[in-house]
Design brief:
The complex is a heterodimer of chains A (about 150) and B (about 475). By secondary structure, chain A is α/β, with parallel strands linked by helices. Chain A is about 35% helix and about 20% strand. Chain A has helices at about 20-30, 45-50, 90-100, 130-145; strands spanning about 5-10, 35-40, 55-60, 70-75, 110-115. Chain A has a five-stranded mixed beta sheet with strand order 2-1-3-5-4, with helices on both faces. With about 475 residues, chain B is of the alpha+beta class. Chain B has helices spanning about 40-45, 50-55, 65-80, 85-115, 130-135, 135-160, 180-205, 210-215, 260-265, 300-310, 315-330, 340-360, 410-415, 415-430, 435-445, and strands spanning about 15-20, 25-35, 165-170, 170, 225-230, 245, 255, 265-270, 280, 300, 380-385, 390-395, 400-410, 465-470, 480-485. In chain B, helix 10 packs across helix 12 and helix 14 runs antiparallel to helix 15 (about 435-445). Chain B starts with 14 loop residues before the first strand and ends with a strand. Classes of the chains: A alpha/beta (about 150), B alpha+beta (about 475). The interface between A and B is large, with 46 and 51 residues.
């Protein structure tokens, strides 16, 4: 099974970078798994996941719950988010469109792991404490998926 | 009752449109508000100028390459160095590849769905997936695959996937090997085909549709302004280098400038209801947010670039340039839906330019960096971002450490133009108190050509550019509120 792990975020913006920080932690483990850090959930995500069996996408989210809360979604479970209109791209629209266009080439198993964040506006390389504390937990979760 | 228009108290990358109706439910006024682009400027203070290109490439996930290149050009100025010819060619190649991938996203994800799926279609269909259904899976696959060829070139030259790091004062950090040049040449041919496919879709869907052409060339989406863009020494559109030219509403030249001279031409006005300032042309003086002859408001972006130029610097794009102005019947063209047409022409132009540069074997020369000079303490990097003219201006100490940064991005240049476009469209569509999704989409179609980039450095899920539209009646009561987040 070919697996790819993607972290999304702005490396210079506090909690927005949580997906990037998680990828950095995973890369330190020198696993035989492909990893990518991306800025946005647009077409670039498709370029990186085509041809893999499993894709794990790690991103920041704001649902109004306790910062540091970890969510795991399949693409279907993200149906509460409407498809974007003609305003802009988003990860979910991109992935749904990818399935429509590329069919079999899109990973059959796509997991989205999201961390509830507190501050996506301040500049800084560090996440806020509660979000930072979630990073090793997400790394563990990702590794479990990879192992299985 | 008067409706108070204040900046939102917590505007986190939102755009907000407020429409006010008169006592008959007809349009009375409209305002577009968004955040000022200032956070990064403070963050950059204290960084060595050579670190700045790598940092500003994170300002925005979409515009990463243009900020990187503009800051790299500014770094040349701070170190008083002229880059080598090879380095200039590599930078131009990098920027043009970036144009292709960016223009493709904007056209296919934002601009075309309004036309291909239809401006009155259900919002659930009027999106990228709706567009895929209309053009067919095979065409969509072809478009996406060809666009990813541009990303491959961008990553190959940028030195790091997604996040470019290769720009340095005086040049570029890595040379292009011959096998890389051959690979880029192969990919570039795919990009030229992407440009041709895109213009063909534009022709089939819009130019051949009488109703859509009425929209494109009608008064609703016509905003008469001055224009600014960058041209080469033959007056043709150039994204990487050249001088900035400004023309008035009739196409007469107001002036040309380069580098720090921008301060002699552009001024900014503070308006109480807006976080973002309103740039205007200094020579004409501030005379309110209004269009028409004599206005001091100007606009930047794909159509303004073509408006100020004498043509394109590649043959296929030149043919389309001539056709566009012939069909529109005026130059400068003031029809803002034609931004999409100009964007498609530029996509082809950038693709052709990538191919030309890749076929120039001297681009593999080893002289990718010039010797640095003395620190001058100041540098200005100006280029054409896909969305419009981008200015990076830095002042440093005598070691090249940034003390002051001023970044003027396309959405700031276009702030007044966007307000005017929204007002003109709302004036036409908001009537008799009827405000539904379809009407508001026609209003949104007025700002989409400008491809707003609202603090998109933050992107958290769900990741859409949040836009809110509030419609008030003449008593100041909220009549309708729509948001996409």
């Amino acid at each position: 099974m070919k697996c790819v792990i993607i972290g999304i975020g702005n490396p210079n913006l506090c909690d927005d970078a949580v997906g990037i920080r998680i990828i950095e932690e995973i890369e330190r483990l020198n696993l035989s798994v492909d990893t990518f850090a991306l800025f946005m959930g647009d077409f670039d995500v498709l370029d990186k996941i085509l041809g893999y069996d499993v894709a794990i996408i790690v991103d920041a989210i704001r649902l109004g719950n306790e910062p540091g809360t970890i969510y795991e979604f399949t693409l279907e479970e993200f149906s509460f988010i409407p498809l974007s209109g003609t305003h802009g791209m988003n990860l979910i629209t991109t992935l749904r469109m990818g399935m429509e266009v590329f069919g079999e080439e899109i990973p059959k198993d796509i997991r989205i792991i999201a961390v509830e964040i507190e501050d996506a506006e301040s500049f800084g390389k560090d996440c806020t404490p509660k979000v930072k504390a979630a990073i090793p937990k997400v790394v563990k979760k990702v590794l479990e998926i990879v192992d299985n | 009752m008067k409706v108070e228009i204040n900046p939102m108290t917590r505007l986190e990358g939102h755009g907000k449109i407020t429409i006010i109706m008169d006592e008959n439910g007809n349009f009375a006024d409209a305002y577009f508000q968004t955040v000022e682009f200032r956070g990064y400027e403070k963050f950059l203070a204290g960084l060595p100028i050579e670190e700045v290109p790598r940092t500003v490439s994170t300002i925005c996930g979409v515009c990463r390459g243009v900020h990187h290149t503009a800051a790299t050009k500014a770094g040349d100025g701070v170190y008083g160095v002229e880059p080598t010819e090879t380095a200039k060619k590599i930078r131009e190649l990098f920027l043009n590849a970036h144009y292709v991938e960016d223009h493709a996203v904007i056209l296919y994800a934002l601009g075309l769905p309004d036309f291909v799926v239809g401006p009155e279609a259900d919002p659930a269909e009027r999106n990228l997936i709706g567009l895929v259904k209309k053009v067919g899976v095979d065409v969509a696959k072809e478009v996406l695959r060809k666009r990813s060829c541009a990303v491959k070139i961008f990553e190959l030259l940028g030195g790091k996937p997604i996040h470019p790091v290769a720009g340095l004062p005086g040049g570029w950090s890595k040379k292009i090997e011959e096998e890389e040049r051959q690979e880029i040449e192969k990919l570039a041919k795919e990009l030229v085909e992407l440009g041709q496919i895109t213009l063909q879709i534009f022709e089939n869907v819009i130019l051949k549709n009488e109703k859509y052409m009425e929209l494109v060339t009608g008064d609703i989406y016509r905003t008469v302004l001055n224009y600014m863009g960058t041209i080469d020494d033959e007056g043709r559109v150039n994204y990487y280098d050249g001088v900035q030219k400004i023309v008035d509403t009739n196409g007469n030249e107001i002036g040309m400038f380069s580098g720090k001279e921008y301060l002699e031409y552009l001024a900014e006005r503070v308006i109480p209801w807006s976080y973002m300032k309103f740039p205007y042309l200094k020579q004409l003086g501030w005379n309110d947010i209004r269009d028409g002859e004599g206005t001091s408001i100007y606009s930047v972006g794909p159509l303004p670039r073509l408006n100020v130029s004498e043509g394109m610097n590649t043959p296929l794009a030149q043919e389309h340039y001539e056709k566009m102005f012939e069909v529109l019947g005026e130059k400068p063209a003031h029809y803002i839906l034609s931004f999409h047409w100009a964007r498609a022409i530029e996509l082809l132009n950038a693709a052709e330019r990538v191919l030309e540069l890749a076929q120039d074997e001297s681009i593999t020369n080893s002289d990718v960096r010039a010797e640095l000079g003395e620190v001058t303490g100041e540098g200005v990097g100006i280029l054409e971002a896909p969305r419009g003219t981008l200015i990076h201006h830095y002042k440093t100490d005598d070691r090249g450490i940034v003390e002051e940064a001023n970044l003027i991005v396309a959405t700031t240049h276009n702030n007044a133009a966007i307000n005017l476009a929204i007002r003109n469209a709302a004036k036409k569509f908001v009537k008799g108190g009827e405000v539904d999704e379809k009407i508001l989409n026609y209003v949104e179609m007025a700002f989409r050509p400008y491809d707003l980039c609202l603090a998109c450095a933050t992107h958290t899920l769900p990741g859409r550019m949040p836009i809110e539209i509030e419609v008030y009646d003449s008593e100041g009561s909220l009549h309708r509120k729509l948001r996409n987040f």
